[in-house]
């Protein structure tokens, strides 16, 4: 079964949150950092990985992403603070 990752990125000022899902977290965050896509995260400079979850099954990860996206910013901040209260960039601890 393929693992999935749900992640939250923010910008330097921590004013914008982007929630995504992927099967390769390191590669996907690297793509965000390199601004390889011209979407929301690139437009708002969301390139700091502040939260992620490892989930068994990509379909389950997609469902979890939808659940997080449907929540309020306050709920997303609670998730981030639960594992990363200083909001440091977790990408470098993965590589």
UniProtKB/TrEMBL annotation:
Pfam families to which the protein is assigned, alphabetical: GIY-YIG
UniProt-listed PROSITE patterns: GIY_YIG
Domain called GIY-YIG: residue spans: 2-78
Family: Belongs to the UPF0213 family.
Protein's UniProt name: Excinuclease ABC subunit C
């Amino acid at each position: 079964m393929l693992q999935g990752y749900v992640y939250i990125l923010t910008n330097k000022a921590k004013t914008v949150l982007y929630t995504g899902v992927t099967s390769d977290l390191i590669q996907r965050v690297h793509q965000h950092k390199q601004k390889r896509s011209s979407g929301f995260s690139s437009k708002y400079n969301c390139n700091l990985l502040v939260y992620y979850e490892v989930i068994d099954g990509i379909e389950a990860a997609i469902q979890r992403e939808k659940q997080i996206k449907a929540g309020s910013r306050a709920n997303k901040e609670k998730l981030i603070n639960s594992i990363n209260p200083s909001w440091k960039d977790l990408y470098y601890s993965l590589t």
